[in-house]
Write a structure and sequence with these properties.
- By secondary structure, the protein is mainly alpha-helical.
- Helices cover 82% and strands 0% of the residues.
- It contains 14 helices and no strands.
- The longest helix has 50 residues.
- It is elongated, with a radius of gyration of 30 Å.
- The C terminus is likely disordered.
Length: 383
């Protein structure tokens, strides 16, 4: 046998090469699958929020994850997706009526409504503006042309983007339902793998973070999204009973505004003022009283029971989450943005809690040592 060849020294250590290879693979995955990030995040948020209910369903079907996931998707489509689609279709029809009225007003003119002229202080000024831009035939078209003349290209692109956005929203919804099915079916095994990886990355903090994150997502979704949808539905029905024009559209806008602290009271207060100013005093006062009572019941009874989580977002993080979510992720960002902001605030508060705890633990023994009396020779001999 010939002499053995000397062992070669690798240019890059195997551990470092494996880490850099993993980083490159993750970066490539994020780059190529960036378009699926929004539906996957939406599926994770819904999965986290509804996981306790899904576990009950899983127990009722004998632990069959495929059957339980299928039933859960059917229930979500029946009680969440279909009502939202119906509300959007009704809203689209009411917006068409608004557009038809604008075309008619531009062609023949429209007199100032009596309730606008009767408003105190601002009534005469608003009457003058209405007569100038809407009252005479063709004035609205001239105003729109003057405003949009320099921005006609941007308006055209916005219209095309809105048309393509509806199709993109349907595709996003379809991908979200597909991702949600696999979140339900394989969520338990995937969470165990995430726990193993988290213990390696954050061995001292992962146990607390893994408890805070699901509770934060559940509390945020229950405390903001579901309550906002419920308030939009309840107040939309109240608008319809009170005889408000376009109650579905106003109900949808109220539901969106309810995501912002103080948005729902502002919405039904403005609608109540409109009813009172237009002569429907009983309907306006009744709507205001009903909205106040409904908001009191929600804030004092339902919201604390549904939230029950470790975090309550202040106004500024909520506002940033809504605006940043819509700008980055579109319509679904209304729900994902506040959840991500809540996670950031929750993790920040957990770190601050750990810092305070560590500071107190370090200061505690020092205080105890300082409070001990000085040792004497007799005490030392007894020891």
């Amino acid at each position: 046998m010939g002499p053995s060849s000397p062992a070669r020294t690798p240019l890059i250590p195997s551990i470092s090469a494996a880490r850099w290879l993993l980083i490159l693979i993750v970066a490539a995955g994020v780059y190529f699958f960036y378009g699926f990030l929004v539906p996957v995040l939406a599926a994770l948020v819904i999965g986290f929020a509804s996981w306790p209910l899904y576990r009950r369903l899983l127990g009722n079907v004998g632990g069959n994850t495929t059957v339980a996931a299928t039933i859960a998707i059917i229930l979500i489509v029946t009680f969440l997706v279909i009502p939202i689609v119906i509300a959007v279709s009704y809203t689209t029809g009411e917006v068409r009526e608004w557009v038809a009225w604008l075309i008619h007003a531009n062609r023949f003119g429209a007199p100032t409504p009596q309730w606008i002229s009767a408003l105190p202080l601002a009534g005469p000024y608003l009457d003058e503006l209405w007569t100038k831009y809407i009252g005479s035939p063709g004035t609205m078209g001239e105003f729109i042309q003057a405003v949009s003349g320099a921005n006609i290209g941007n308006i055209y692109r916005a219209v095309l983007a809105a048309g393509g956005g509806a199709f993109h929203l349907l595709l996003t919804l379809l991908f979200m339902l597909i991702a949600l099915f696999f979140v339900y079916r394989d969520g338990s095994s995937f969470s165990r793998q995430i726990d193993m990886l988290g213990e390696r990355i954050l061995p001292n903090r992962w146990e607390r973070i893994s408890r805070v994150v699901p509770a934060t997502i559940s509390s945020t979704v229950m405390g903001m999204t579901l309550i906002a949808i419920g308030e939009g539905i309840v107040l939309g029905v109240a608008y319809w009973i009170a005889g408000v024009p376009s109650p579905v559209t106003l109900g949808v806008l109220t539901g969106v505004m309810a995501l912002i602290p103080g948005g729902a009271p502002l919405s039904f207060t403005l609608v109540s003022i409109y009813l009172v100013a237009s002569g429907s005093h009983v309907a306006g006062i009744g709507l205001f009283v009903w909205g106040t009572v409904e908001l009191f019941i929600v804030d004092k009874t339902l919201r604390p029971k549904l939230v029950g989580g470790p975090i309550k977002l202040p106004f500024l993080p909520t506002f940033f989450g809504l605006v940043g979510g819509v700008k980055t992720m579109g319509f679904l960002g209304l729900f994902i943005g506040p959840v991500l902001m809540a996670l950031l605030v929750a993790i920040w508060r957990e770190w601050m809690h750990e810092v305070r705890t560590s500071d107190q633990s370090q200061a505690g023994p020092q205080i105890i040592i300082d409070e001990q009396p000085p040792a004497t020779p007799q005490r030392a001999a007894e020891g």
